[in-house]
Amino acid sequence: MNSTIILLIIVSYFGVLMLISHFTSKNSSDDSFYTGDRKSPWQVVAFGMIGAVMSGVTFVSIPGMVSNNYFYYLQFVFGNIVGYVFITYVLIPIYYNLKLISIYSYLETRFGSKSYKTGSLFFLISQSFGAALRLLLAAKILQYAVFDAFNIPFYLTVIIILVLIWMYTNKSGIKTIVWTDTLQTFFLLLAAIVSIYVIKDSLDLSFSETVTSVTNHEYFKVFDWDFNSGSNFFKQFISGILIAVAMVGLDQNMMQKTLTCKSKKEAQRNILTFSFFLAFAQFLFLGLGVMLYLYAEKFGIQLEMENGKFINTDNLFPMLSLGNFGTVAAISFILGITAASFSSVDSSLTALTTSFTHDFLDIEHKNSKEKKRLKNYVLLGFSVVIFIIIMLFSESKGDVITTIFKVAGYTYGPLLGLYLFGIFTKIKIKDAIVPYICLLMPLLTYYLNYIVKEKFSFDLGFMNILLNACLTILCLIIIRKKNDL
To answer: Could you tell me which CATH number the domain at 3-416 has?
Structure first.
């Protein structure tokens, strides 16, 4: 597909985002950037959150990973649903009852200022890496599809994307993002549906034959009962629960959208509705993955392999969409990945800005002019941080989604431990020691995971987050205040 046409599509999409930003920024208050004035329709938030959670990583990684991981990812998704129920009935009431803007201020109420700052810091680290890795994948695809043709270097591509995001985000933040996320979800799902339709026609299959081809394929293996495997059902299911709680319920990015709903009840409806539609969307992308490999096999498309496994599987969907599926599919793919690269990162930058300004700069007590100045500086600062991380990981290979969840196991583990301990116990702890525990536990988790894998050939997989959280809780019990049970 012509690179100039693709560039025009991207420019047009950006124009739509600026238009949305213009309308949503009208009548905005100082807090609109952070709270959306708490007037967002929960149905819009729920639909938009589907795309925000999936992002460009899910868009290309889940279909590609099917060849090496089959449908085992569904075990993780089943666990996610249970995690979302926990968020709905445990975390949402806490956040609304305390009227939180930054969700980490709960830790100050429960433990003290050191725990509060530590929890926020771990979110900042986690979200910075997550946002950078998500944008890295999208930027690589846009580089291949558009910017290489104009001899624009990769680092400049990333800068262009970040500048465009800053232009429409800095006005009203989350108030704008609630609506731009709906575009992301729409175009992500549209690209999958169009691609499935194109492949179905190319393989001369009816709808029922398409379903049969997917469900009868050797990749359609949902459950793994091998206890030593990293994709074992129990490991995937339990880690799915914990990672959903950590990466959505304890994530300022996701919860900030939910807290823009008008009431606690509407926020709860939002989470429950979003969780089931998200599960369906992820199943759709797994099915698309099988069809991509069926297409490649039928038309003799050679894919890179190493040690009997496909490598660089994140390249499969973009390669076929842009080179084999025709103009309509190529346009829908470009719109999908553009929406993903913009909307998943803009919400992350807003959440990072919210957390840092409220948790470390005490922005609530600044005047209006100072609030605006600090907000813009912090937003720019985190854009630079994300750029640096992207360049550090720019040569990485393999599916990005696995990398994100592995990193999350180490960075969100202490945060999960703090919240579980705070919610389910009344024990008071020595707040000053918490930062040291939260820094040491990920290192100990990494060491223990290495030992178990080397000595016993037992892969914890995504269960690192459980080990990390348990070690954190154990240490919190040890540092409880004297005479406190």
So the answer is: 1.20.1730.10
